[in-house]
Specification:
about 45% helix; alpha/beta; 12 helices
Length: about 325
């Protein structure tokens, strides 16, 4: 069978992880595809969902994230081999081992940003339908060291067959303006630097040429062709961005006051006016106005509380 030379949308769809509807249990969509004149960015805003008792549940969100840790941190091919071995021997040993390996790859540092990176993964794959194409956590050699480079790499494809490479970045801070500024400043080099060996994205491109994985061997080889600088396919790559900014929002009521989902959505839409203005200013500063970026705004009851909930769910706190 001839090897395909390019990637089509069906190959990327087949590589997606998980049930997208489960995301709606924990995150409520407020607005999507918010645009500003003269900018190529699309802004999406979610809030935490409200249960029948008028409560938001960041710990349930963190537990959901823990349950998909292997999807994020283990390559598709490695997981497929483990599933096949378990099926052969009527066991769960191999998959359980990979889940534990995935969990241990996360750091227990109090200021870790890995929770934000996982949320970005979930929103990119389950909301935008952009599959992650390399598991960088699987390449870590020290659990207490954050992996350098982009927070994730995701892929889409245009109707003309151009590979849209989405470089990921996430920041979860107390202040919205600080999160937006830090996120877009970190993301900018991956999007606007000229192609050369000293570019910030070059190391990740080398990793992609070796470790990109769509699960299907033929499609994976076709994907790797886009990162081969000796191939004409390397000229058919468009650099895009996918970003998450999480931050404190004062409109979540304190216990025992009950939250009302409609009130949270109204407050978030009002806040989105100022967040969008901050995003526009920072895009101009970083010269990113004409770069395609999918940007998630996630107002939280507490950024610090979210990090603590994630570490607790992962069993990384004493």
């Amino acid at each position: 069978m001839d090897r395909p030379s390019s990637i089509d949308a069906s190959a990327l769809t087949a590589a997606l992880h998980g049930d997208p509807e489960v995301l709606d249990v924990h995150l409520a969509l407020v607005e999507r595809d918010v645009i500003s004149d003269g900018l190529a960015v699309k802004i999406h805003c979610h809030c935490l969902t409200v249960d029948a008792n008028g409560r938001v549940q960041p710990h349930r969100l963190a537990e959901f994230m823990r349950n998909v840790v292997a999807d994020y941190a283990i390559s598709r091919s490695k997981m497929a081999s483990a599933k096949a071995r378990d099926l052969r021997f009527n066991s769960t040993e191999a998959v359980t081992g990979l889940v534990e390996q995935a969990r241990r790859s996360f750091t227990d540092l109090a200021l870790t940003g890995e929770g934000g990176e996982m949320l970005l993964f979930l929103l990119a794959e389950r909301f935008l339908k952009l599959p992650q194409i390399i598991c960088k956590m699987d390449l870590k050699t020290d659990a207490r060291v954050h992996y350098h480079g982009a927070d994730g790499v995701y892929a889409g494809v245009s109707e003309s067959g151009v590979l849209k490479l989405y470089w990921g970045e996430s920041k979860v801070y107390g202040d919205a303006g600080d999160a937006i500024a830090a996120c877009l400043t970190s993301l900018a080099p991956f999007l606007i630097e000229a192609e050369h060996e000293a570019a910030d994205r070059e190391r990740d491109l080398i990793l992609l040429s070796d470790h990109a994985d769509l699960g299907d061997p033929l499609m994976t080889e076709a994907l790797k062709g886009y990162f081969d600088t000796s191939s004409i396919m390397s000229k058919r790559v468009q650099h895009c961005g996918v970003a998450l900014v999480g931050f404190d929002a004062g409109f979540y009521p304190n216990h025992p006051v009950k939250a009302v989902a409609e009130d949270l959505a109204t407050a978030a839409r009002k806040g989105l006016e100022s967040w969008r203005a901050s995003i526009g200013r920072r895009l101009a500063t970083e010269q990113l106005e004409q770069v395609e970026i999918e940007l998630f705004c996630l107002p939280l009851p507490s950024a610090e509380g979210f990090r603590t909930a994630f570490l607790t769910a992962m069993g990384l706190t004493e």
